[in-house]
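Readers of this paper often ask what the protein records in our data store actually look like. The remainder of this section carries one protein's record, kept here as part of the documentation.

:::
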Amino acid sequence: MSLVTLEEVLKDAQKRNYAVPGFNFHLYEDLKAIIKGAEEMKSPVIVMAAGNCIRHWGPKLAAEIVKEIANKAQVPVVAHLDHASDMSLIFKAMKAGFTSVMYDGSSLLLEENIANTKIVVKVAKALGISVEAEVGRVGKSEEGEDVGEILTDPKVAFKFVEETGVDALAVAVGTVHGMQKQSANLHMDLCEELSRVVPVPLVLHGSSGVKNNDLTKLSKTNFCKINIGTRLKTVYAERIREILKKDPALKSPLILMKEASSAVTETVKEKISLLGSANKA
C-alpha cells in the first residue's frame, strides 16, 4: 500500500471515533518495527521524523526510507515531518516525498504563527500534502528543553484554524515531551471544550506520559492523532540493556537491533489497542 496523507487517515478517525497513533522513528529498524506492529493490528499508522532523526538522515533519505517500507506495507502509512519550525526544511521535506508536515510556530506571537502557517498551507495544498500546526505550547521541546507550558485557548484555536486552513491542530492540555512515567495531569475539561470548538482533528503531543485510560478516553473525542515517541525509545534501549546483560559477548549489531525492535513492535500494538485504531485499516 502506498503512502497516504494525514488528512485521509484522520478524516476516517474523526468520523468513526478513534485515534491514529503517530510514532517517532530514528532508525531503519525501529521504523520497520513500527509498521510491523501496525500491520499485525490492521491499523493505519503515522510515522514521524523529527529533531535528531532529521539531522541524522536528512529529509531526502528519511523520506526514501519511509517510502521503501510503506510501499510494501499492508496498511495506510503517513510520512510525517514532526515539529519543524524551519520553513526551508519543511519545503525540502515536501519535495522529498513526505505526505504530511507539521509547522511548529508555537514559540512565536499568534499573528506571526498564523502568517507563517498560511504560507506552509498554501504550498502544501498545491502539492496534495497535509499540514499540522500548533497553538499553545507543550511544556518541553522534543529534545527535552524546558520551553514553558502555555495551555491552548479554545477561542484562539478556532481563530487559528479558520484563518490558516490547517488539516490538524496540536494543542497543549497538560502533557510534557519526554516523560518517562505515565503521570501527566491532563486538563480534561479543556480537552472536551477544544473537541467541541475546533472543527479539524486535534493532536496530542507528549502522550508517553499519559495514563492508559486517559488515552482511551481522548481517542473517543476529537483528538484523532496521538503522538508517541519517548516510550518507544525507552523500550528499545531497555531491551538492548537486557540482551547485553544476558550475553555480554554479543558483537553483532544486526542481531541486537532485531531483538530490540521486537519490543518496539509490542509497544506499538499496545498503543493501537488503547486508541481503538485496530482493524480500521
About this structure: The chain has a mean pLDDT of 92. Residues 191 and 218 are 8 Å apart (CA to CA).
